[in-house]
Amino acid sequence: MLKVGLTGGIASGKTAVADYLAELGAAVIDTDVLAREVVAPGEPGLAEVVTEFGNDILLPDGSLDRARLRSLVFADKSRRQQLEAILHPRIRARTLQAIEAAENSASPYVVIVVPLLVETDFAALVDRVLVVDISPELQQQRLMARDSVAAAEAARIIGQQASREQRLQAADDVLENNTDRAELRDRVASLHAHYLDLARSRTGAKP
User: Fold this and answer.
1) What is the pTM (predicted TM-score) of this model?
2) What is the mean pLDDT of residues 73-93?
3) Is 31 a domain residue?
4) Residue 171 has pLDDT above 90, yes or no
5) Are residues 171 and 199 in the same domain?
6) Number of other CB atoms surrounding residue 155 within 10 Å
7) Structural domains counted in the chain
């Protein structure tokens, strides 16, 4: 089955693109959803995170205080690497399970949404890398509006990720998202048609 890794900077529009591709019939696996699952109450992943970072990262109901944990790891690269060492193997394992399920479905291809695809080894799981690209200025504006953060905080968050140049270097396909949703839908539809052709060529199916 054709496996497409979908990535892009924060607030670039990855979710919108994934949603449109799902509407068109692609199977979609969102690793952000899997990341939340591995730290749900009762999961070994949450227990290990608490052991590493302390009980202060828990909310009163025993669930993970994501905002507090995010502030800790964004401020300290070594702490972020410690968190990734706990979570990434678990997320990868669940991703592989989800890919196997998708391969047994009727979907023509599978899209795996990985925000940190360029920064991690997740690229090894996919056949093509699709980057949702956005201008730096618009990215910062959208992040400020979405998360209600100041310009300096938005710039700091963006700076923690791979650069735009690094993502574009890793891309097989680039989807520009500097305009409105209607134009984005049209571009996604064209890309979907391209992926259908690629999927058919892999299986030898006729158009």
Assistant:
1) 0.90
2) 90
3) no
4) yes
5) yes
6) 15
7) 2
Q: Is residue 101 part of a domain?
A: no
Secondary structure string (H, E, C) spanning the chain: CEEEEEEECCCCCHHHHHHHHHHCCCEEEEHHHHHHHHCCCCCHHHHHHHHHHCHHHECCCCCECHHHHHHHHHCCHHHHHHHHHHHHHHHHHHHHHHHHHHHCCCCCEEEEECCCCCCCHHHHHCCEEEEEECCHHHHHHHHHHHHCCCHHHHHHHHHCCCCHHHHHHHCCEEEECCCCHHHHHHHHHHHHHHHHHHHHHHHCCCC
- Mean local confidence (pLDDT), 186-196: 97
Residue with the bigger pLDDT between 73 and 100: it is 100
| Same structural domain, 152 and 171 | yes
Q: Are 92 and 121 in a shared domain? A: no
Range(s) of the domain holding residue 175:
1-26+107-207
Does one domain contain both 159 and 196? Answer: yes
